[in-house]
Specification:
Layout (H helix, E strand, L loop, with lengths): L23 H6 L3 E7 L2 E6 L2 E3 L4 E2 L2 E6 L3 E6 L2 E6 L10
Length: about 90
């Protein structure tokens, strides 16, 4: 049965593979790295629409590193790495 048939609308902005959750605390905890901007020697990361620099805090996490492929966040629960692209997109032979 399609989502439209179930009375639910599909969010066209939702990242590919994201699964909707009924638990609101899980929705708040979802962090999506959308972009990395580099100008001269300064790097910024866009996470859930927020422009962040190294040292900034966001949703209980400290942004401790920005590299070409992702960011590293630190919290009392441990470190987390968000990548711009995860998984295999295509295999070439």
């Amino acid at each position: 049965m399609s989502q439209c048939a179930k009375g639910q609308q599909v969010d066209p902005t939702r990242p590919f593979g994201a699964v909707a959750s009924a638990n609101s605390s899980e929705k708040r905890a979802a962090l999506v790295l959308q972009s990395i901007i580099q100008s001269n020697n300064k790097k910024k990361a866009i996470i859930n629409g927020q422009v962040l620099n190294v040292g900034d805090k966001y949703k209980g996490f400290d942004l401790i590193a920005i590299n070409a492929n992702g960011v590293v966040l630190d919290s009392p629960q441990g470190r987390m790495e968000l990548l711009l692209f995860s998984g295999v997109i295509a295999n070439s032979k």
